[in-house]
Amino acid sequence: MAEMTSLAERIDILESSEAGESVCSISCRLGWRESTIRKWRSRGRTMGRPGLVSHMGRPPKGALSSFPE
User: Fold this and answer.
1) Which of the four pLDDT bands, split at 50, 70 and 90, describes residue 54?
2) What is the spatial distance between Cα 36 and Cα 14, in angstroms, rounded to a whole number?
3) What gap in Å lies between CA 8 and CA 15, rounded to an integer?
4) Could you state, in order of their start, the residue ranges of all structural domains in the chain?
5) Is the dihedral of CA 38, 5, 24, 45 positive or negative?
6) Using an 8 Å Cβ cutoff, are 21 and 8 in contact?
7) Distance, C-alpha 31 to centroid of its chain
8) What local confidence, expressed as pLDDT, does residue 51 receive?
9) What is the DSSP string of the chain?
10) Residue 67 or 9, more confident
């Protein structure tokens, strides 16, 4: 199973990015791939801190929220 970034790491990514630190620099410091840094930086910029929360599993509403028995 793949490793997941923690919420603290995602917040660090967003704050470092806002402070002007480069993607490469953040990636080297935290040990995550640059694509991971870009993903969380983008989500943080578009949705703010609430966008940094991971939503794994089924959605709470909609067609995929339940499985017919």
Assistant:
1) confident
2) 12
3) 10
4) 7-49
5) positive
6) no
7) 14
8) 87
9) ------HHHHHHHHHHHHTT--HHHHHHHHT--HHHHHHHHHHHHHH-GGGGS---SS-SSSTTS----
10) 9
| Total number of residues shown for the chain | 69
Q: Are 30 and 4 in contact (CB under 8 A)?
A: no
Model pTM score: 0.75
For 2-22, the pLDDT digits (tens) are 788 999 999 999 999 999 999
CA distance 30 to 69: 44
User: Which residues have a Cβ under 8 Å from the Cβ of 17 and sit 6 or more positions away?
Assistant: 23, 26, 37, 41, 44, 45
User: Which pair of structure tokens corresponds to residue 2?
Assistant: 């793949």
